[in-house]
Write a structure and sequence with these properties.
Distance between the termini: 16 Å
Keywords: Cell inner membrane, Cell membrane, Membrane, Transmembrane, Transmembrane helix, Transport
Subcellular location: Cell inner membrane
Subunit structure: The complex comprises the extracytoplasmic solute receptor protein and the two transmembrane proteins.
Shape: elongated
Helix content: over 70%
Radius of gyration: 20 Å
Order of helices and strands: EEHHHHH
Family: Belongs to the TRAP transporter small permease family.
InterPro entries: DctQ, TRAP_DctQ
Oligomer: single chain
């Protein structure tokens, strides 16, 4: 019989509404990340085509791609964490007794939660400063910098939600 936190396809099997909400939010972030990967592919291909085949480069392609890559990482990180696709030392965890492994998992989630909190605070200050100062990107796009920087806030929130859900599962005796 499966426990409340057994894995389904690499992800935590959610049993509580909070777990399902965090999974849905992380999944939405993963979907946004996937769509942005396709957008980067299309605009990069268009930029290469226009520059090397047509001979008319499109201004701002490299700048836009850089902004999108940051958004891809920020929106996809929570889904990767939820699915267990992040980097960790499974060789050590696999040899640990179940009780120690659970506490190592709790410690790891708390560490990521502290990181995501620091990311949120720093991103909030960065976005606030950029809005107050009126900072624009230095390239062809001249985009207000708070817009692409806001992806860091969204990513921090998503990662925090996933960590909280995983901690909840671990602390009530489940596995991630």
């Amino acid at each position: 019989m499966k426990g409340p936190a057994e894995r389904e396809g690499g992800a935590i099997a959610s049993s509580s509404p909070a777990d399902r909400f965090a999974a849905a939010i992380a999944g939405a972030g993963g979907l946004v990340s996937s769509v942005l990967i396709l957008v980067v592919l299309v605009i990069t291909a268009a930029g290469v085509w226009m520059r090397y085949v047509i001979g008319q480069p499109i201004a701002g392609i490299e700048e836009a791609t850089g902004f999108f890559v940051v958004a891809i990482v920020m929106f996809g990180a929570a889904e990767a964490s939820r699915r267990g696709d992040h980097i960790r030392i499974d060789m050590i965890l696999d040899k640990a007794p179940p009780r120690l492994r659970r506490w190592l998992d709790v410690w790891a989630e708390l560490s990521v939660l502290v990181f995501s909190a620091a990311l949120l605070v720093t991103a909030w200050h960065t976005v606030s400063f950029s809005r107050r100062f009126g900072a624009y990107s230095p390239g062809y796009l001249e985009l207000p910098m708070w817009i692409p920087q806001s992806a860091m806030i969204a990513g921090g929130v998503l990662i925090s939600l996933v960590c909280l859900a995983r901690l909840f599962i671990l602390l009530r005796g489940g596995r991630t």
